[in-house]
Fold:
Amino acid sequence: MPSAQPTHPTGSPASQHDPTGAPAPVVPRWEWRLIARSLPIDPARLALDPESPSAGGETYLLSALTPHNVKIRKQLLEIKWLERRAVGGLELWRPTAHSPFPLDDAARSALWNAWGIAPQPTGATESLDALLRDVVGKNDALRRVDLVKRRTRLSLAGCAGELVELEIGAERRVSIAFEDADPRAVRAAVAAAGLEGYPNLNYPAALKDIVGLPSISMAASEGVR
Structure:
């Protein structure tokens, strides 16, 4: 059965193989994201990549029990684990799964841990439909949220980022995000964009607020279990 393969927050594979076949280590990345009803700055300040716009649907599978990020994109399960929040609000995310269905043992274990629920029967992950029906649909702590993202890549102060238009049912939001393995690069990009002082809000927390699902809070410099 296929094995889970982590990804970077941008969706590119995080575990690349060298010529000997050994996987490279997964590198956690610091992220900062603004999610708001409208853009608080002039987009001309952002170095947008005119060749990169893309649009696609994604399904977030939220848990009221943890702050971690679980979603389905292109029929693949993607999981990012929120490791800690630093002073100033930056969050450190570690990709832990990027797996097709049926899920293997490693991906199933990563999923239950990310949701904070007890292991479920193997058959519940034989297909995406089974997972949505037999696990998400039957657990009050879990919630499915479908959305559409229109994403444009950007780079500012040497840090990669994105500008995203979000459609969440009848709700509309806009998001600007920066990410890097070095938190100093992320802070420099936030400052260059003129966004210092705005709160860092990740997708799971924002979506929980929109759909009315309780959100797990975390103090600065506190790890997450």
